[in-house]
Design brief:
The complex is a heterodimer. Chain A is an alpha+beta fold. In chain A, 51% of the residues lie in helices and 9% in strands. Chain A contains 20 helices and twelve strands. In chain A, helix 1 crosses helix 5 and helix 3 packs parallel to helix 13. By secondary structure, chain B is α+β, with helices and mostly antiparallel strands. The chains are: A alpha+beta, B alpha+beta.
């Protein structure tokens, strides 16, 4: 996005000083992520929705690959007329992005002809194509789940000989690692295959509603479209089921506030038939429904429930108590559906002309066709697939640790994937040569230095945006996916005293003590009646919504997951505040106004 | 047909505007629809015309007014002042005065509002709104009799007469009603539109309010609080708290109202809670539903009081409702029309610059 260079502006990329103690941050990231001199002329914003923390070197793959895929789909495959792809840069460990518009009317026209045919084909065949998509994505998940890391024993398998395979295990170290990277890329291409078309249908309906009802809230539009049987609620539903079973099987006494998952699981094994019944139900729920990341699938340390049972076991005691008190209700899906339909038909009734009503029906109808994808793809892609992806990478990390190249498996995430390639080559060569790998001396100091730098970078407050203020910011992706509008930019330019402004994502006004979580792994600390303040929330945070009174996030729009879940729970939410986690401290009393999108620190 | 001189507002409806006046008809209509309206009565046009028989028996004074040119401001001022003086100086016809006294007694000892109810005012076609007088916090039957005549005289305000001359409205047979209504001591009051006055959005109720009597808001003496409530979801989608430096309230034990500085802590405090705001919007919706078109409504919220007003909605009263006229006159035409395929909407949207 080009900006007005002489008008109001944010700090320029070239003006950002290195964080003291992390001057070497550039060594963690590829050259193509660096700000260039000409980048000072463009508007960039901090993508704290996806990247709320400094990037470990490996995790930059969650920027590199998605942006490679989304731009390919919008610019080259579907040929969106007015927008190309998204560029990203990293400074002090933080990912900044900008969208590339098409402004020349001739070029827009030429692209529109191609776009009409290609996008039209997808819209017309959406259901069939989406069913095929699910099959393909599940195939990718099966494949990433089944990838193994060669053991590299002293002697290779006999089968290499008896089946005359002719290829030794060390070859598969690289091939299987590459396969993980390749599958990650394929997954992201599929992820973004439907993304802009799905959101596009929503944007059109959204803009129609805003024109017909200039004062309609974003959330009212979202509620007309929202699906009811959304897969992202399933993990939470599974937990509710497990809570019921715990009471039914008489093992509910084990689920107490603050209980440890290990202690509970061990104790259950000794609780006879009831304990066994619960454990087998638990195993069934766990695969696949616990493949939800505690983040949004963009960091290796956002472990899934399956990897780290902290989140489910933080939620279970509360659900168990509710079952005992007869208070645990299922999601009132019929009532939710009736309310959604009531809202839609009420707005339809307010339209004056029959023509408008017919257009409304078409647009809303199309939204409801595309929404199963919009709402469910994250579970398949960011959660299920990505949890498995990071687990496989971690297994390669274990190989590097066994070989002595790294001190521990987790250290693999301090290396860029191209550096992992080198380390694996080292291991392959060493195994073949019968010599120790040379990587320990090379990589261990690098890993130690990077961990130190990441800690230093963590303390940096990234400006919400860089560069000149754009004259017009109405890129649909930027608005829908990031909640960034002209108003957001103005708020970033002039932060008001004591008042934190964002997008009112779910209505209501409440006060309560704040619980600021900067790291999703702290989720177990949330207590009843607190107001959650976090960089961003993900579907896996749903259980915690049963405890909190309101949710506040740094980034997110009216369609972000925090917004959707908060509406479902009927609690106020303000998303897209930019910096609530920095301006609020745990324990402070805050007032959250979900109608106006304002958070105030009271005491 | 002989019209009565006095009629309880609850007994009139929209069809009675010609002899009760628009305001009385609207209040009666609201009462009939089960909406909360303060108790009151209307002096009909029959009372006015009988009085005018005494003031201007042969209609000569009115005939003179009607013959003046719209741009003869000095002539209008002179003739209108003379007629007004005669309207207020002439004693009420005994038959009218004798009906007002018991009706006032029936309203109780508290203050009343005496409000003109013009037969041509408050109609969507010809907005005479605001040209005739209203007297607030009138106490005692004697004062009511005076204010009734003052209301009648206001039909001959210079501005009203000029307006009629410009519109070419005949003075012959012109008449007005007067509403005498219990006056309540509101905690907050204001106006609301059942569509946005700013954007014309029909899906919201726009409320403005201030502390105390609504006259401070209508007279422009305060920057009111404003609220926007979605009719569909009940959400408060807009809220701007004004700085309410003054408050209008009853003059203690005297006639009329006084304007005093607002207590500092309340100046920037919203005059409605969220619950009250949502409840008021629902009342507005009921009024719109009754009439079938967006309305411009005056409302008041009674001071917090004990259990007999447990239901919040019972604490609101409506003082006026008329059809919204500004947006009703605009027709933007349909903003979208159905396409051959639903996806055509999307293809078209993304094929032009955003």
């Amino acid at each position: 996005m080009d900006g007005n260079v002489s008008g109001p502006r944010f700090p320029l990329p070239s003006e950002i000083a290195d964080v003291p103690g992390a001057e070497g941050w550039r060594s963690m990231y590829p050259y193509f992520t660096r700000f260039q001199p000409d980048d000072d002329k463009r508007f960039w914003f901090y993508n704290s929705m996806h990247f709320p923390e400094p990037m470990p070197a490996f995790d930059t793959i969650t920027a590199e690959v998605p942006y490679s895929a989304i731009g390919a789909n919008t610019a080259r495959v579907f040929v969106f007329p007015t927008t190309l792809g998204i560029e990203h840069r990293i400074v002090n460990g933080r990912v900044y992005i900008t969208a590339n518009p098409v402004t020349d009317p001739d070029e827009i026209g030429r692209r529109a002809a191609v776009f009409g045919e290609r996008a039209g084909y997808y819209y017309e065949n959406w259901d069939t194509l989406y069913q095929g998509w699910k099959t393909r994505i599940k195939g990718l998940i099966d494949e990433i789940t089944s990838i193994t890391v060669p053991e590299l024993p002293e002697f290779d398998d006999a089968a290499v000989v008896t089946e005359s395979r002719g290829v030794a295990q060390n070859h598969y170290v690289r091939e299987n690692f590459h396969r993980c990277i390749d599958l990650f890329s394929v997954m992201w291409h599929h992820h973004t295959e439907f993304l802009m078309l799905g959101y596009g249908a929503y944007v059109v309906f959204f803009q129609f509603c805003k024109q017909a009802f200039p004062e309609i809230s974003d959330q009212a539009v979202a509620r007309m479209v929202a699906g009811i049987d959304v897969i992202m609620y399933r993990p939470d539903d599974e937990l509710r089921g497990l809570a019921r079973l715990a009471v039914e099987a008489g093992v509910d006494d084990l689920f107490t506030e603050g209980c440890s998952s290990t202690a509970v699981l061990t104790a259950l094994a000794g609780r006879g038939e009831g304990g066994q019944r619960w454990l087998s139900a638990f195993e069934r729920a766990r695969d696949p429904w616990f493949n939800v990341s505690t983040g949004d699938g963009f960091y290796h340390h956002h472990r899934s429930w399956a990897d780290d049972l902290t989140v489910p076991f933080a939620a279970l005691p509360r659900y168990v108590a509710q079952v005992r008190d007869g208070l645990l209700a299922d999601r009132p899906t019929e009532a939710l559906r009736a309310e959604r339909d009531r809202i839609a038909s009420s707005y339809r009734d307010l339209l004056v002309s029959g023509e408008e009503k017919a257009a409304f029906d078409q647009m809303l109808g199309l939204c409801r066709v595309v929404f199963p994808y919009v709402e469910d793809h994250k579970f398949y892609c960011e959660h299920w697939f990505t949890s498995q992806f990071f687990s496989r990478i971690r297994e390669f990390g274990a190989l590097l640790a066994r070989s002595g190249v790294l001190a521990e498996a987790e250290d693999i995430f301090q290396l860029h994937h191209t550096e992992v390639d080198q380390a694996l080559s080292d291991v392959m060569l060493a195994w073949a040569a019968g010599a120790p790998p040379l990587g320990a001396a090379h990589f261990r100091p690098i890993v130690a230095e990077r961990k130190r730098m990441l800690e230093a970078l963590r303390g940096w407050s990234p400006p919400p945006a860089l560069g000149p203020v754009p004259e017009a910011l109405n890129d649909p992706a930027v608005h829908m996916l990031w909640g960034v509008t002209q108003q957001t930019i103005e708020a970033w330019l002039q932060p008001a005293e004591g008042e934190i402004r964002g997008v009112g994502a779910s209505s209501g006004v409440v006060e309560g003590p704040a619980r600021v979580l900067t790291d999703v792994n702290q989720i177990g600390e949330v207590r009843d009646g607190e107001i959650l303040v976090c960089p961003v929330t993900a579907p896996s945070w749903a259980p915690v919504f049963g405890k909190i009174k309101a949710a506040v996030s740094d980034i997110g729009g009216s369609m972000s997951h925090a917004a959707i879940v908060a509406r479902e729970y009927g609690m106020p939410a303000v998303v897209g505040t930019g910096d609530a986690t920095k301006r609020i401290s745990t324990g402070q009393r805050v007032r959250v106004d979900g109608d106006r999108g304002i958070v105030q620190v009271i005491a | 047909m002989t019209q009565p001189f006095i009629c309880w507002t609850a007994g009139v409806g929209a069809a009675d505007a010609t002899w009760a006046g628009g305001k009385a008809a609207a209040l009666g209509e609201l009462a009939r629809a089960g909406l909360p309206v303060p108790r009151g009565f209307v002096l009909t046009t029959a009372a006015f015309l009988l009085h005018m028989d005494g003031v201007d028996p042969d209609g000569a004074a009115r005939g003179t007014l009607g013959a003046l040119a719209a741009d003869d401001l000095a002539g209008i001022a002179r003739a209108a002042a003379g007629l007004r003086a005669r309207v207020t100086a002439t004693g009420l016809p005994p038959g009218v005065a004798s009906e007002i006294a018991p009706a006032c007694a029936a309203l109780g000892a508290g203050p009343v509002a005496v409000r003109s109810s013009a037969t041509m005012e408050d109609s969507p076609e010809a907005s005479f709104a605001g040209l005739q007088d209203t007297y607030l916090a009138v106490r005692g039957t004697g004062a009511v009799l005076d204010r009734v005549r003052a209301c009648w005289a206001s039909l001959y305000n210079d501005e009203s007469v000029t307006y009629r001359r410009r519109q070419g409205t005949s003075e012959d047979g012109l008449a007005m009603g007067v509403v005498v209504q219990r006056m309540l001591n509101p905690r907050s009051a204001g106006v609301m539109f059942t569509r946005s006055p700013v954007t014309g959005d029909r899906s919201v109720v726009a409320i403005e309010g201030t502390w105390g009597l609504g006259s401070a808001l209508v007279g422009g003496e305060v920057t009111p609080d404003s609220f926007t409530v979605s009719k569909v979801t009940g959400e408060i989608t807009g809220r701007r708290v004004g700085v309410k430096l003054r408050v209008h309230s009853f003059t203690p034990n005297g006639q009329g109202i006084s304007a005093t500085p607002m207590a500092v802590p309340l100046r920037r405090t919203p005059c409605l809670t969220d619950d009250e705001t949502r409840t008021l919007a629902r009342v507005g919706q009921q009024v719109e539903d009754h009439y079938g078109t967006p309305q411009d409504i005056e409302w008041a919220l009674l001071a917090d009081s004990p259990a007999d007003l447990a239901d919040l909605a019972d604490r609101f009263v409506l003082l006026q409702s008329r059809p919204e006229t500004v947006w009703a006159a605009r027709d933007p035409g349909p903003i979208a029309s159905p396409q051959a395929k639903a996806s055509d909407h999307v293809l078209a949207r993304f094929s032009r610059r955003l």
